[in-house]
Amino acid sequence: MGEAKSDLFQYNLFTLSNHLRFSPLTTYLIECLEIPLFMLDTVRNLVDKIDRTEVQFLDARVYTSEILSLTYRKGNPSNVSSEIRSGVAIRALKDGAWGFASVASLDPVEIRNAIHAAIKMAKGLSSRIRTKAEVTTDVAYEAYNEYKPKEDPREYDFEFKMGLAKKIDDILRNYDPSIKSSSGSYSEMIQREEIVNTNGTNVVTDYAALRLFAAASSRRGDVIQNVSDSVATSGGLEHILKWDIDENATKLAQRAVNLLDAVNAPAGKQNVLLDPSIVGVYIHEAFGHASEGDAILSNRSVLRDQIGEVMAIPEISVYDDPTIPGLRGTFLYDSEGTPTKMRKIIENGKLVGYLNDLQTSTQLDQPILGGGRAQDFRHTVMPRMGNTYIGNGDKTLEELIEMIGNGVYLQSSYGGYVNPITGEFFFSSQGGYLIEDGQLTKPIRNSGLSGMTLDVLKNTIGVGNDLDLEAFPGTCGKPSLTGAQMVPVSAGGPHIAAKDIVVGGR
Known about the structure:
38% strand, single chain, alpha+beta, globular, 2 domains, seven-stranded mixed beta sheet, 506 residues, PmbA/TldD fold
């Protein structure tokens, strides 16, 4: 067994129910609808009955989740939803081809039918694929990982959570007449995956994603400025409640209004100073996606066949670490039941690794570090990021500003996009400052940043010493054969200074 944790695991998991806490909705599902608390034994028995000559590998992933989303916008409740989602995903590998089937049911008969459907699909595709998939059969894991936060969000009622969103909206909306749009939102997802496979893996793992989000738009004439801020965690509600709504919402409203009097950023190539949130989004979008193993295998990445090559200045190292406690992108076991570890992508400027699931680890001959994620049972597993960041440097913020000389300081990411095949990216900032003669001067409005992935890393002239791991808590979208998948992530880094980067200006 590869790194087995059998001391944490019990086959008779029903004995644990007396120690678990459930929301009223989950209790109703268990008691009234007779949805079983644990399915692991049932699914293990079904998988063990498979004729092993029929498949190279097969896994079954039972997924259950409680999802709550609510928004207060312009003084009124909006987009309020609560959902229980459950089902089973089956993957079968036969002669190098994958078959996938999912069923929105926990009925053993339907699960067995899904297993046969996945195997049948794999057989049908095996003669039509050019590149054969492979998965190691040498590793298996046993674990039980329960969500047990200090402040369990399931113990707080709907009115309390709606009150958080309403308070944000009230502060933003009433701050100044120039704020034309405002919203506060709270989202919560608590999920469980129960994973078994033909290698012998038996894993039950919980994951949570909580987020409190604030957004506002200000307008004067034809000038519109957008701002947002948020706090997020994979831990308990205590992390959310530490975020001072009065202070942070007021600062956000003030920033939205002040940006109306700011100047446009100069357009064209500039020396740029990027704050940790923009550094995080940049490294996630422009480099993280390009390092995912499925993009490498399918030749859809500028990083293919580049292991050992120089990607950045020696002061830059890039990591993805899903084990950091409390961050939005933290998960201790992935959707294949593999325990996660910190993954090195760039070390001292050189590309040293990719982000992998079981298949890409096997085919790229890389360590198995737990990078396979799926949004839910309707989707298949893919290599994904967790918490992606640039490591600390040794420069103070003042030193970086002085190094820029003349240029722009971009702050507070508003998202971005990258084409991992070409390495071309575009990001937007919520504001910042002009840098003139090594000093911060005039505030600048919402701006754009564009270029090629490797240009920023190779043109970096200084790396800050102020690492912020949760500078950008967000949601990452990625296309797949089973549809677009969204998973919670975090991204960050220290401030970095780079030369000759294209800034979009107005």
